[in-house]
Specification:
Oligomer: single chain
Largest sheet: 7 strands, parallel
Number of helices: 9
Length: about 250
């Protein structure tokens, strides 16, 4: 039985990735800050689970987590923890943004590096980094969040190329969904008027794409077409388009 480690497993996409992997027979290491939610999820799943109550916004906790999980023969790392913060850059809370950078970038960076080294030594393993279609765009009114997802996208791309040139059997995938019906907007302080996919739909495509070794997983034809079209739009026009879209999230 293969083992997967999933951060952000207490809600949203991370939770549904756990459900999807369990349905496929994976043993799971579930990571989040909320013990009650992890315990509830573990009871629901049909395969063996181990929970780690851990705040990965703290660097030392990332190393603590790795030290324990690395003895569990992990062959799939899912970096699904993350959150956003809505508002103009001048007005949003600096401490909250620093926490976001710690979770969305620093924890992803640390865990990816540590597990990647193990996977490369065994020449076996997969990494799934949960980014966003925001990772291809500038993000007025969600500037820090978009910037963190740009980091995840570019980091994943670079690692994928390094693995290719090393002729490694290890793969890295980057999930880049558009709007998803999760707790994200409530946490970010916004609402999303766009039609959203369910996190279960996104999780299914994420797992399928990751196990197939696909680099970019972009659920939904509309989002895929939008990501492609964004490359053709002049930067100033793109900024205005994204700004207007984000403004609608703050309007009741």
């Amino acid at each position: 039985m293969k083992t997967a480690l999933i951060t952000g497993a207490s809600s949203g996409i991370g939770k549904d990735i756990a459900r999807e992997l369990s349905a496929r027979g994976w043993r799971l290491l579930l990571v989040a800050r909320r013990r009650d939610r992890l315990e509830q999820l573990a009871k629901e799943l049909q395969t063996p689970c181990r929970i780690y109550v851990c705040d990965i916004s703290r660097e030392e906790n990332c190393h603590w987590l790795y030290a324990r999980a690395s003895t569990q023969d992990v062959s799939l790392l899912v970096n699904a923890a993350g959150f956003g913060l809505y508002g103009t850059f001048a007005q949003t809370d600096l401490n909250r943004e620093m926490e976001m950078i710690d979770v969305n970038i620093k924890a992803v960076h640390i865990l990816t590096k540590l597990f990647l080294r193990d996977f490369m030594e065994k020449d076996e393993g997969r990494i799934l980094n949960v980014a966003s279609s925001a990772g291809f765009l500038p993000g007025p009114l969600l500037s820090t969040y978009y910037a963190t997802k740009n980091y995840v996208v570019r980091l994943s791309e670079a690692i994928a190329e390094e693995l290719r040139t090393a002729d490694s059997a290890v793969t890295i995938s980057c999930l880049c969904p558009g709007p998803v019906a999760t707790e994200f907007n409530a946490v970010a302080g916004a609402h999303d008027p766009a039609k959203a996919l369910t996190s279960a739909q996104v999780a299914k495509q994420a797992v399928e794409g990751t196990l197939a070794g696909k680099l970019f997983i972009i659920p939904g034809m509309t989002v895929r077409l939008g990501a492609a079209a964004a490359r053709l739009v002049p930067e100033r026009a793109l900024l205005r388009i994204v700004h207007r879209f984000q403004q609608s999230k703050g309007n009741e």
